[in-house]
Fold this protein.
Amino acid sequence: MSDRGRFYVTTPIYYVNDVPHLGTAYTTIVTDALRRFHQVVGEETFMLTGTDEHGLKIEREAQAAGLEPKAFTDQISARFREAWPKLDVAADRFIRTTDPDHEAFVKELWKKIEVNGDLYEGEYEGWYCVGCESLKTEKELEQPGNLCPIHKTAVERMKESSYFFKLEKWQKPLLDFYARHPGFIQPESRRNEVLSFVQGGLKDLSVSRTTFSWGIPVPGNPKHVMYVWFDALTNYRSALGTGDLTRFWAPNAKVVHIVGKDILRFHAVFWPAFLLSAGYKEEELPDVVYAHGFLTVDGQKMSKSLRNAVDPLKLAEALGPDTLRYHLLRGIAFGQDGDFDHAALLERYNADLGKNLGNLLSRVIGLCTKMTDGKHPDDDMSTDGPLEAEVAEAYALHVSGAHTAWNDLAPHLALDHAMKLANAMNLYIAKAEPWSKGSAGRVTKILSRCLRVLEALSVMMWPAVPTKVDAMRAQLGLPPVRAAVGVDVWPTQLPGIRAGLALAGAGPLFPTYDDKAQKELLERLAPPKAEEKSEKAEKKAAPGPAAVAAAAGAEGGPIAYDDFAKVDLRVGVVVTCEKVPKKDKLLRLTVDLGEPEARTIVAGLALSFTPEQLVGKKVIVVANLAPREFGSAEFEGKKVKLVSHGMLLASGPSEDLRLATIDGDAPPGARLK
Ligand code: MSP
């Protein structure tokens, strides 16, 4: 496929074990902005986003929420669908992997691969990270505790019959494809990473599961459900179906997948291999898989709790979606890791949108109100002087620079060009001094030039900040940017003179935040820094005199902090788990507490959990409880004393227990305070 007129761009489809957060908002906003640029230049575009709803992770999450998987995914999927328009994201389709047309398409793709001889049945044994929904080699795991290097949670041992996809067979065709299409994997550094992975050899891939049922059944063998990534990746093609929309998967369409670096391999290796195997030709593969970096927030890794604390919807509500969009697009070099800093967001807004673009706009409109009767003035370009030549030079440089940057998937550079052009215009006004007597004959020229560049800037900025741009255009007396297929409105040439057109007057479109307002916003929006949090926690935990006094005698009343501090609560990860023969309620577990050896714990959990459900789970353990005896039981013909070296925290009746756990990536052995 190539870029002649159509542009199809996708976000990853998001797992419904999480609600929209800043990371997923980032990918989605960038994708939307790229799509808007291609609209502006007259291409026919299609943007896809959606939710990834099958697999073990989601099945477990639904179970934990006490819901049927479909009811659970309906709820969370709706959160995503409702979130994106609030960030000015306008996708053409929101796909769910539970959509019937998607399921039907995936089954067809599977059958094609099967007919082509690339699937066979076998048995898989190895390690599986449910967080990644991916197998892990022993080498990849972090020790102690067999931890997934990404999620820092214990992987699970998996042994079951499975279909395998002959991935190994596609190693050479993939390498040939990468060589012939150097732009397929971007940025360059990521490309090298994938190349060396594939050059290192590919192993056949387990693509079905039999130990759970929440997935698309394998055609002809419904005991198996498809591997969730096989199902998920196919969304990019299934969303277009087999009718009219296939024009977006055709020789004159450019197909771009925007993904985070964590999921590049699935997109750059598995996805083209599945497509080739199903009979797609090399020229029918996507054009670009672009892997962007990861965001931290105010310098902290985005753990689940932090993610929840920085709700992009709250930010958009407080500051307007465009302020958030602008900062994400301009402040983070696309492709690299970046920090989302709340204070920097406000500073950037003030500097770029408030003092640069906003100032240019309000100054020009203000001058026109005074000097040109509130209308666009006329101009005679044949009387241009050296200052206009400077403007023309800056204009050519930045308008084409921004065009190239948007095309090259570099929104941060595109916006930098727009800001430099706005800055050049502010300088032009300062040098040309339309208000001074000496400029009397040039006033209309200066203001006309500024208005025309402002119109150009509105188009250049529209992909990033569509609402603000349309408000700005209204002030300029212009209609909103309306993209039409086949009409390229990119301002390669300076927009025409609009003599006589009335301006709609100035209102503060980009009011800056002063120190006080910034402080208030930061207090309201930014999550407390790690140190502040622990200080606060300590303050809270520190006992007041009343608490100590009360602890002295009252039974069931408050306890002293020192008493609480005696309880050693630790994060544990369940390594093994088995039923205790002849004891209905008991399970015997070994739990990794970050100690040299996993602890044996006996717990009355068997009426609520199967051993498989617990292996790999994070639990909270009372680690300094004196060992407790539970009698004895026979394991593999041997009588063994049941001694528990700790206790798990849970709540509920014994047939419906909920385990206490911890979110984020606290390592085994982490102490709870
Ligand atoms: N369901 C899979 C994708 C299947 S695509 C066929 C998945 N989903 S996800 O919900 O985990 O979202 C993944 C995407 O969210 C990442 O690829 C990345 O784009 C984005 N991000 C999640 N956390 C992020 C950051 N902290 N920073 C930037 N983006 C992040 O993987």
About this structure: The longest helix spans residues 342-371. The chain has 22 helices and 26 strands. The CA atoms of residues 371 and 443 lie 8 Å apart.
